[in-house]
Write a structure and sequence with these properties.
There is one protein chain. By secondary structure, the chain is α/β, with parallel strands linked by helices. The chain is 59% helix and 9% strand. It folds into eight domains: 194 residues, Winged helix-like DNA-binding domain superfamily/Winged helix DNA-binding domain (Arc Repressor Mutant, subunit A), CATH 1.10.10.10; 58 residues, no CATH class; 159 residues, Alpha-Beta Plaits, CATH 3.30.70.1230; 140 residues, 3-Layer(aba) Sandwich (Rossmann fold); 86 residues; 68 residues, Orthogonal Bundle (Arc Repressor Mutant, subunit A); 216 residues, Serine Threonine Protein Phosphatase 5, Tetratricopeptide repeat (Alpha Horseshoe); 99 residues, Tetratricopeptide repeat domain (Serine Threonine Protein Phosphatase 5, Tetratricopeptide repeat), CATH 1.25.40.10. The protein contains 48 helices and 21 strands. Helix 27 crosses helix 30. It is globular and about 100 Å long. The relative contact order is 0.03. About 1% of the residues have low confidence.
Length: 1179
């Protein structure tokens, strides 16, 4: 959607989709500004009086009409609603106002439920966003005459916004200082002083930060500057506190700064075309002109990061190990054009940029590289800047530039051909030059394509081996449409031209439908003429008999049956001819060597390091910047990755998506693609009409299928994730033979572990075909749900048996399909199927610690059930509430979990549902144990065990395993209550049961409990061994939550044995594992332990503060008051260590007040200890 952007912070600017709007009247911008910031409809009289204060009403209204007409003439009529009496901006349009956005961000902070003075982890990014919007004072430099009312309004707005801005800066400095981000705090303190240079608090904060970070020189300089300002403007001296801080800084030490090296050097070689003639014309002024020329080269190179590597009178070699060589080249030409050369005129220089990819940090052979660049320079013309496709990957192309493809060329003493490009830019002397002066005839006819080839290094290497092999004479690049087969074939052929002395020829079959035309098209490409009555195929075979040629044949799929016979005939009658063809389907020839072409590599959904190095991302960025030069990669990284995933890394899909960046932002593009693949379309005249959209490509593939193949393929689109042959046959009647046919046609991928999947882009197309017949769609969904409900039911006994790990693995492979089926079951009210799935899914998500996913399943079912008021659903509703509440607790939200479990317990008791009552009591016992309410927990678990051991409970392995879990929990509660004998008895009983029935997961809890018992008795070596045994089991079944708990406990054991490095390793490992589970409370506990180590053993108070604050934010979010009490006390010690006494006092108070809220004497005593620490420290 087109966007109107009104920027009023700083110099006013109005743009539509980034293009500035020029309005030839001074009061147009003030009018729009006033309408934008006053969302009510404005009367014409009010606006006229505001903007033309000194005019009478008739004149003012006439001037307003003129201004409105000017706005319409500037193309803004659609953005303004007006009638005879009133005016407003159109609320239905997409309008972005920086002032409103600035205020909205600040208001967002005010909605966190705390006063502005309170430090908040979640306010920091919001405040940062607001600061970035503030480019300067409101409507800077904008004054209009005879509009006193408007000036008063503008001044008031400016003062209010400036105050908000300064307040936000002060809060941001406090936030970063509190969280230990001292460098960011320093940055924003400097910004603060830039806007308010007399603010004493800002100077104090910045000086204190310099003191904390040991930046002696900066601190001394700041104090002297502050002292001078006070004396000059206020005639006073700094206060005692500032002087004391200054003295503290004098004893500090500066922080060293490291440098980073850059790989892949780029050479810029320049010379003067026809230099002898030019210098002869210069005569006596040669030295003066040469000095000017040298100075331009040296200064420009230095400015853009280059150094002079070699220099002669008319030739210079620059080396760029970092910087911007292309910008340097363009600027040299610009400076040459502007310099004073007299009547002689500027020298006509030509430039070449050349490089190679260096492996393992090897600096490369500079002499060889320079020679190669010189060879390329020798065939270029004055005024040209040329470089290879290889070098292009390393270059930052200047804005406003275009690239011209100069084709493939051979250089003396350089193996193979090179692909050469020329930079076109307004600052260069000419955009037209003769062809490069290459003296070697090129026996190639490759199409010139855009954009430059990116990635596919592994495929190119494979193709090089195949093209050099004597055995592989027919090589087929097989893949779906738009995947880049043609580009790959052309690129590979161009890199291997030297091995085919009789030529490399490109032949496209897209335009022909009759295979009889294939030999004619080949002959035309070879410039061979048929003669006489002899068979054309025989003539062509004789012509190619001993020629070493490579035929690159494109778009073979629609002619493959008869066409394969023609290729077989030619191959049988030639010796050195090779064929590299592209097709969506295999030829099924014995002589055929297959290379499958897949999408470009895409990084994981979570942004990785060096994301921009992935080929898919490079291609998107390259085309986006070409389409929209101001496009920013960093601001869109997550959305770009999402887009590349949605199109399976398909290059055509990426190009079509990136071409929309001028109209939509990347998140909107991703949304549109997910809604409808037809969004990916273009009308560009330089793209093959068959590639104008992905749907057009799929239409072509669909036409090549039989009726049966189309029917089954439609049904297969019901799978949202990879599937097994068994699932495909049971749900869709897809035989193994049909699956094989789809693979041959590049419509289906065969993955590892005998699983299959439709390409994501084609899946959407096929699912739309299935949706055309609603009866068929519904029937397929029902079969899908039935299959996965029965699958889950089959896994329940296996999950409680010696094959537990195998069952878990099988469920993990099918999980996405199971989740899809669950959603359709809920939608269709198939609660009988839900009942089959709930317990297997509960066990799976508990073992895997995926509480977010599991909780979402049960919560969605509960939402639907809450809309069904029939009593027949009461039990299943209570069951979903129970499971949802348990997952909610596991995510760390304790009070919500207790409330949900308490409510469903009452329902279960009403219906006398013994098993459900027992399970709910087990959950409540665990929650109370976690909260330290051991007596209540003991009561719950004892009642639970009584019910589970009764006659009403079945004695299957599932029920036996759950009963053993309850015994383990009973042992942990007894351990906390000091009943060590009963604890040991219960834990050993649980362990014995799980070992007997083979439920390995169940052994983790009793092993951990016995390890804690060993710690209580001071036997840390036994505790370590028991924890390691539990860890081995948890690792084997990928239970990340229990792995995190065990690593956290091992950290405590190693601390007790004074092995601090090992202790730190385990707590860091625990944190990384826990963040994957979604268990917020456990994450906070581990963060607290990590911060403790950072402060006590590793002497990193700043990092400890940041970690404690992250921990406190989580405890506050989930309402864990015990956690807040302990962590507030702990962070106060960190602030005490860095000398921030105000923060120390604040968090001691927070710890004490929270402990008093809990009415816990031990916690109150613990909190009071924080005050003792502070008083002792300050004497």
């Amino acid at each position: 959607m087109t966007q109107l952007t009104i920027s009023l912070l700083g110099s006013p600017q109005i743009t539509v989709d980034g293009v500035p709007i020029r309005i030839p009247t001074a009061r147009a911008v003030p009018l729009i500004a006033y309408l934008a910031l006053n969302d009510q409809v404005q009367s014409r009289e009010n606006l006229a009086n505001l903007l033309w204060t000194d005019s009478n009403q008739k004149q003012a209204l006439a001037a307003l009409r003129t201004t409105l007409w000017r706005l319409k003439s500037a193309g803004l009529s659609d953005w303004i609603d007006l009638d005879r009496n009133e005016i407003a901006l159109n609320p239905q349009k997409n309008i972005e106002v920086d002032v409103l956005r600035f205020k909205a961000l600040l208001n967002k902070c005010n909605m966190h439920g705390h006063p502005p003075s309170q430090i908040c982890l979640y306010c920091t990014p919001v405040l940062t966003g607001a600061i970035e919007l503030y480019r300067g004072e409101f409507m800077t430099g904008f004054n209009i005459s005879k509009a006193l009312s408007f000036d008063d309004w503008r001044m008031q707005q400016s003062l209010n916004l400036a105050s908000l801005h300064l307040n936000a800066l002060e809060r941001l400095v406090s936030c970063h200082r509190t969280f230990g981000d001292f460098n960011l705090a320093i940055h924003f303190a400097r910004v603060w002083l830039g806007y308010d240079h007399l603010n004493e608090n800002a100077y104090h904060q910045l000086l204190q930060l310099y003191s904390i970070t040991g930046q002696r020189t900066a601190g001394i300089s700041l104090f002297k500057h502050y002292k001078e300002i006070l004396l000059h403007e206020l005639e006073i001296e700094p206060d005692e506190e500032m002087v004391a801080l200054y003295k503290q800084i004098i004893t500090g030490h500066p922080t060293p700064v490291s440098k980073q090296s850059v790989k892949n050097p780029v050479f810029l070689i320049a010379d003067i075309e026809k230099a002898p003639i030019y210098w002869a014309r210069a005569g006596d002024k040669k030295n003066e002109i040469l000095a000017t020329y040298d100075n331009i080269l040296k200064e420009t190179a230095r400015r853009f990061g280059g150094i002079v590597l070699q220099k002669s009178e008319d030739n210079v070699t620059l080396l760029f190990e970092s910087g911007q060589p292309l910008h340097c080249a363009v600027t040299i030409h610009l400076k040459l054009k502007k310099a004073d050369w007299g009547e002689l005129g500027p020298p006509n220089i030509r430039m070449v940029l050349y490089s190679t990819f260096l492996e393992g940090g090897n600096p490369g052979n500079f002499a060889m590289l320079t020679h190669a660049a010189s060879s390329l320079l020798s065939i270029s013309w004055g005024g040209q800047i040329v470089f290879t496709d290889q070098t292009l990957r390393l270059l930052d192309v200047p804005s406003g530039s275009n690239l011209k493809d100069l084709g493939f060329h051979f250089l003396n003493d350089i193996e193979g051909s090179i692909h050469v490009f020329e930079l076109l830019h307004p600052h260069l002397p000419s955009a037209e030059h003769p062809p490069l002066q290459s003296g070697i005839e090129q026996l190639v006819n490759f199409p010139i394509v855009s954009p430059p080839f990116i990635g596919r290094e592994q495929e190119l290497e494979q193709l090089s081996h195949l093209l050099l092999s004597n055995e592989d004479r027919l090589i087929s690049l097989i893949g779906p449409g738009g995947i880049g087969k043609t580009r790959l074939a052309v690129q590979s052929a161009s890199q291997n031209t030297e091995y085919f002395p009789d030529g490399v020829y490109f032949i496209s079959l897209a335009s022909i439908q009759d295979p009889d035309f294939i030999p004619i098209l080949i002959a035309d490409t070879l410039k061979f003429s048929f003669f006489g009555p002899t068979d054309h195929m025989e003539q062509l075979a004789k012509y190619l008999h001993r020629r070493s040629v490579l035929l690159v044949i494109d778009n073979f799929e629609h002619l493959r049956v008869e066409g394969a016979k023609i290729l077989a005939f030619l191959l049988a009658r030639t010796h050195q001819m090779k064929i590299l063809l592209t097709s969506r389907e295999r030829l099924n020839m014995i002589s055929e060597t297959i290379l499958e072409v897949h999408g470009l590599p895409v990084p994981g959904i979570a942004a990785e390091e060096n994301t921009e190095n992935f080929s898919s991302i490079k291609l998107f960025i390259h085309n986006a910047k070409k389409t929209f030069p101001r496009f920013s990669f960093q601001n869109n990284i997550e959305a770009i990755i999402r887009i590349c995933h949605l199109v399976d890394g398909n290059p055509l899909g990426i190009l079509l998506a990136s071409s929309w960046v001028r109209v939509f932002n990347c998140f909107e593009i991703a949304t549109e693609i997910k809604k409808n693949i037809d969004f990916l379309t273009t009308s560009a005249s330089d793209i093959d009409p068959r590639h104008h959209s992905l749907s057009a490509i799929f239409d072509n593939s669909w036409k090549l299928l039989s009726q049966e193949e189309r029917l089954i393929l439609r049904k297969l689109s019901i799978f949202q994730a990879p599937f097994t042959p068994r699932a495909a046959q049971n749900i869709c009647d897809a035989t193994p033979l049909l699956l094989s046919i789809y693979i041959d046609k590049s419509l289906l991928n065969h993955l590892q572990e005998d699983r299959f999947e439709l390409l994501a882009t084609f899946h959407q197309y096929a699912y739309a075909k299935l949706g055309e017949d609603n009866e068929e769609l519904v029937a397929t969904k029902v079969k899908f749900c039935e299959f996965y409900a029965n699958f889950c039911a089959q896994k329940l006994p296996e999950l409680n048996s010696p094959v537990q790990i195998k069952a878990m693995s099988e469920m993990q492979s099918e999980l996405e399909n199971i989740h899809t089926a669950w959603g359709w079951m809920v939608e269709a009210n198939r609660w009988d199927m839900i009942d089959k799935c709930k317990n297997p899914l509960l066990i799976y998500h508990t073992i895997m610690s995926t509480y977010l996913q599991g909780g979402e399943l049960f919560r969605n079912a509960l939402i639907k059930l809450n809309k069904l008021y029939s009593p027949e659903f009461n039990l299943i509703r209570a069951s979903m509430q129970q499971l949802s509440a348990w997952m909610t607790f596991r995510k760390g939200f304790i009070s919500e979990g207790i409330q949900g479990l308490t409510e469903c317990l009452d329902i279960f008791r009403t219906y006398k549902a013994t098993w459900d009552i027992a399970m709910t009591l087990y959950y409540l016992a665990e929650i109370n144990r976690t909260q330290g309410k051991y007596s209540q927990a003991k009561n719950f678990i004892e009642e639970c065990l009584t019910l589970m051991r009764g006659d009403n409970i079945p004695k299957s392995n599932f029920h036996i395993a759950i009963t053993a879990h309850c015994e383990s929990l009973q042992g942990l509660i007894c351990l906390e209550l000091g009943n060590l004998d009963q604890a040991r008895l219960s834990l050993n009983s649980c362990l014995s049961t799980h070992n007997r029935i083979g439920t390995f997961y169940g052994t983790i809890h009793p092993l951990m409990g016995l390890a804690r018992l060993a710690c209580t008795l001071g036997d840390y070596l036994q505790a370590r061994d028991l924890y390691l045994q539990a860890l081995d089991t948890a690792t084997n079944i990928y239970d990340h939550r229990q792995m995190a708990v065990i690593h956290n406990n091992l950290s405590a054991v190693y601390e007790e044995t004074a092995d601090i490095p090992e202790s730190h390793h385990h707590v860091v490992t625990a944190l990384n594992l826990c963040k994957e589970t979604g268990d917020r409370r456990l994450t906070a506990v581990i963060l607290n332990n990590l911060a403790y180590q950072l402060l006590k053993y590793l002497d990193q108070p700043a990092e400890a503060i940041r970690t404690y604050q992250e921990c406190l934010a989580i405890f506050s979010e989930i309402g864990d008051l015990r956690g807040i009490t302990y962590s507030s006390y702990d962070v106060s010690k960190a602030y005490l260590k860095v000398g921030l006494f105000d923060e120390t006092w604040k968090y001691c108070l927070q710890s004490l007040h929270t402990a008093m809220t809990l009415d816990s004497t031990p916690l109150i005593l613990h909190a009071l200890h924080g005050f003792a620490n502070l008083f002792a420290h300050i004497n």
